[in-house]
Structures are given as C-alpha cells and as structure tokens.
Amino acid sequence: MAKDFRFGMSLRFIKSRTALVEKVKRAEDVGFDVLCVPDHIGAAAPFPTLTAAAMVTTRLRLSMYVLNAAFYKPALLSRDLLDLDKLSDGRLEIGLGTGYVREEFEAAELPYPSAGARVNYLQHMTTYLKEHHPKTPILIAGNGDRVLTIAAQHADIIGLTGANVHGTDDDPLTERVEFVRNAAGDRFGALELNLAITAVPAVGESVPDLKMTRMYAPGLSDEEILATHSVLTGSPREMADTLSEYRDKYGVTFITVQDNHIDNFAKVIAELG
User: Fold this and answer.
1) Is 64 within a domain?
2) Domain containing residue 78
C-alpha cells in the first residue's frame, strides 16, 4: 500500500514578524505538513524562526532542512531542540546535514573540516541526538555514499537530491534509492523518502524560473535542468501526476518546496488530496 504524501515548505528568509505569521498560517491552511528552515549564514535563523511559527500554528510540524551539524556541539543543540519540541507541543522533526559552504564556516570563525571529518561529525551528532531524543524523527539529507549510509542506518527520513554523483546513471534517483535500500536492510520499509523541489512554475505558468536550481547545477543546460527530479513543470494537475509517479516508482512521499512556490503548489496539494 502506498504511503500518504507529506508536504514541506522551506522558508529561507523572513521580512518581518507579520510576514512570517501570515506565511506559516497560510501554509498550514492550504495543506502543508512541515515547515523547514535551512541553516545558512545570512538567512533566517532556524530556532527563533521555528519557535515563532510554533506560537501561531497548531498542526504544522517544525523541522530544519537542514542544520549544519558542524556548527553545533551535541549537548547545546540538544538543549535547543528539547525546548523547541516543548514549545511546539511535540511537533519537532530534526533535520541534519554535514554543511558544505566553506565561506559560511569562515564567516562563523569556525575551521572548515575535510569532507570526511564533516561526515564523521554528522554520525557523532546523529548518535547523540538519537540517544537524547529517541521519539523525535530525524531527517538526514545528502547525496554521497557515506552520508546516505548513515541516514539509511540511523535516520527516520532520507533527504534525496536526485543528483547523479557518478555521472553514468540514466536514472540517478533510482540508483540512490537502491543504495539506501541496500544500506538500510530491514529498516527500509519504515523509512520516509524526501525529495527537495527547487523549482515550481508560477501561477498560470508551466515552466519555472530555474535560478535557484542553477546554483546547485551550474554546468547543466536549461533542458538538462528541466529534466532533473528537483524541477516540476506543467499545470498543477500535471505536477500532481508527476509526484504520484515518483511515489509509485521511487517510494518518495515527502515533498519539500520553497516558500515562494506556495500559491501554485497549494493547487498541487489540492489535486493530490
């Protein structure tokens, strides 16, 4: 039996308290299930933003997509997570990643560890948080083999990018899902697979603005970007059909979109309802 969809809205910037309250209430009203705040220097701070959202919503779950694990010490992060969970009446989900932007480490006056060291620290952080927050779902997002192995063996939710890390697969998302399946073993059936969508058409349009997606795939042509799993095209009905195909083919049921896509994606949610 196919799992039900869940929909996340990623909120990167806030303009004011009024604007934040209006947006998160609207997201809850139109059927989003999770508010996700990323963790970047120069963008919205995850914990105050999510706490403010908790105060004005009742159903929306609260997560991060994703915290830069290397920015935090486990006990201090655990303290903040515990209180956010209390203030939201148990609506917390924990999102973790390795961190990857060297300039952000430099701005934070933190050393920039090697890729291997960042992955090791992610595993250390995950182990600590699972011990201290055993009932709180953990999402780990990434694409490399080691990160997805940690996610498959320890997380509850797997954040997939759909990128082709080896440069040879015709269907890279299938390859990554199969990798997770093999790494998870008997756990796989209980895992939730997430896909972050970076481009959705505006209301009345069928082709999206690709500016954000180009940040993650600078070497691809427009045609190649439009063919990636992180980009949706077409009418709301056509996008809903695409997501249904993703669920059937890949088992992906948790879809995250950017907050500037809320108006048109609300129509997609309605189609899938």
Assistant:
1) yes
2) 6-272
